[in-house]
Structures
1.
Amino acid sequence: MKLGFVSAILDGWNFEEMIDTASEMGFSCVEVACWPCGKAERRYAGVSHINVDELTDEKAAEILAYCAKKGVEISSLAFYPNTLDGIRPRTWRKTWSW
């Protein structure tokens, strides 16, 4: 089993600082926040350690190489609505293609 955390708790850190922190603390993986940058409607939304709007194949390779160098895997990408919010209609749509 691998132990990690969601990177949104490190709001204010850049990607490299966040991965360095995970590595130094002995975590083996991180769920990386990649919500759209901007004003958040709830806590942690808006935190972004990977800007998916500007992600290129080259940048993705750099990200993976940095993670490998530090011994930290990306377990998942955090980009999802508040699943407990049943009041407002869902307006999230996929805004990029992989």
2.
Amino acid sequence: MKTVTLNEVLKNKMEDKEFSILYEKEKIKNKIAQMIIQLRQREGLTQEELAKRANTSQPVIARLERGTDSRIPSLELLNKIAHSLGRELEISFKVVK
């Protein structure tokens, strides 16, 4: 029996357009979650404190940090969070390898 690596499985699955789109969406949500957690913790804030600063609710911050919401957060929300953490939201497009 041949051993198959996760990278090989992903490479094959990524050929499926629908899977590829969903996979990229999940990567984006997880990257956003990681960034918000890191910045919030670096500032020494609770989710509640960040929510107040960003004029949103603690459950919204919790959902973002879990990365489990089916939606990608709006640019408006991300901008409010960025500004409440003394940051500027930056968006870029990268060349696909």
3.
Amino acid sequence: MVLLPDKQEEKKRWLARDALNMILWAGKHRAEDCIIYYRHRGVPGDYLAILVSDIREMGQLFFHTDDQTIPYHRILAILCNGAIIWNKRGADLSFLDR
């Protein structure tokens, strides 16, 4: 499910990077209230979560925090105030029910 800011764009599938830019620059959501869940193999459940406010720089293919670089294609879902505002098509999000 993707919540778009404009009904004219309903048919467009946003990328994770687009959703992050919307959070960081459009002002509809506070970055402190938004969580990125991303694939991280080797940890229990194979995913980790960080706050959008932890992003220090956004590149073309990756975003950077103070201590890691994460490719956009690893993002599974982005939640703001508990609501999914972006999710990867076909991703298993059953871990959100825990």
4.
Amino acid sequence: MEVSPSEVAKKFRQEAKDYIKEQIAPSGKKLKFVGLLSNDNEDSKVYSDFTKLGCDDAGVEYEAKVISRFDLESELRELNQDDSVTGVIVYYPIFGG
């Protein structure tokens, strides 16, 4: 039996969209994720780009930030204080790799 990853993902994407529409949107709260990239790893950049596509599809704001690995901790602290940010994604590797 062959399983199509896109068909499996389609179900989860729809569930996420439905949840946002039914549970989050009525509250007036908007979801915003920030992705932190602290390296030149092309795979991380591609993953971040796909995250944006998924967020756009689900109605979630997504912002990618390229920062120095040495600024990661302070950036996380700032984002944790920002009430408009509901999620942070840290893309690996952080210290090379």
